[in-house]
Specification:
This protein is of the alpha/beta class. It is 39% helix and 25% strand. Helix 2 crosses helix 3.
Length: 282
């Protein structure tokens, strides 16, 4: 029998990590502004691990912390969003030539990358507007840089980015979106009412639009989110999994694995929600 050779192109997220993130965001400051001392790359990686969930409180006001976040979590969260978009909402949104989306507390907004990845496989041209509502203003330049770099790999779409500096917990706007993302935000809201965020998201999503939630799979958190979704008016839960297992498609060098310990195999909880049509008065 003849030998059949199949050539797989490198995933776009791998290209982004290799061509841009590893080259530009591994340049760490040697002085820690948080602790006011000299610090090594290994110490930064250890600090990020100990400060990040579920171990402590994230230090997003530290530039090195954000660099660690990109290396350790950007590709992972891209894969989570890519999975949800392609598995659950792609058949419905593919006909929408103009698409709008917003991320609540999006940081570098891996959700935008996942949407662009999906658009690359579309047969029609799309206009994508993506907004990022983020309390930490210093994420804006990183968010725009990462999204613009990734867009170079994608065809068949036009991109417009928005950044809204503010607290997603109390954000008020008349604008509504086709997709609202809440990625790993609830688990960071220590002592805050996550129902407020869910209501903000409910107000932002268009009728028949989608809300995609991803977060830590801790049982108490999963139950709290599920209960709030069930009692929130106008929301229909389409799919939910308390502990979804993923194996990363991105390859990391031995040095990066040793220093940053990116998760190759991991688990997360997710909810896919659709908002019902507004009642039509007679």
């Amino acid at each position: 029998m003849p030998v059949i050779t199949i050539n797989f192109s490198e995933p776009h997220i791998q290209s982004l990590m290799d061509d841009h993130v590893f080259k530009n965001y591994l340049k760490f400051d040697e002085h820690c502004n948080i602790n006011n001392k000299s610090i090594s790359l290994e110490e930064c990686g250890d600090c990020h691990y100990k400060s990040y969930l579920p171990n402590g409180n994230p230090k997003y006001n530290c530039d090195n912390f954000k660099r660690c976040y990109l290396i350790r979590y950007l590709s992972r969260q891209f894969e989570q969003n890519d999975f949800l978009i392609k598995t659950y909402i792609s058949p419905d949104i593919k006909s929408r030539t103009t698409l709008s989306a917003v991320s609540l507390g999006g940081g570098p907004a891996p959700e935008a990358l996942a949407l662009m990845e999906w658009l690359d496989s579309s047969e029609i041209e799309h206009n994508l507007y993506f907004a990022n509502i983020e309390l930490e203003a210093s994420w804006e330049s990183i968010y725009r840089d990462i999204c613009c770099q990734f867009s170079n790999y994608i065809n068949n779409f036009k991109l417009k980015l928005g950044f809204i500096h503010g607290d997603a917990n109390s954000y008020i706007s008349n604008k509504q979106y086709d997709i609202v993302f809440i990625s790993w935000l609830f688990s960071e809201m220590r002592g805050q009412n996550i129902g407020d965020i869910l209501q903000v998201a409910n107000n932002l999503v268009k009728p028949q639009g989608y809300m995609l939630i991803m977060d830590y799979h801790k049982r108490s958190l999963v139950e709290e989110i599920s209960n709030l979704i069930n009692i929130t008016q106008d929301l229909t839960l389409l799919n939910h999994e308390s502990k979804h297992k993923v194996h990363s498609i991105v390859n990391f060098s031995i040095e990066i694995k040793k220093t940053f310990g990116p998760h190759i195999d991991y688990e997360f909880a997710y909810w896919v929600i659709q908002r019902s049509l507004d009642d039509i008065p007679f």
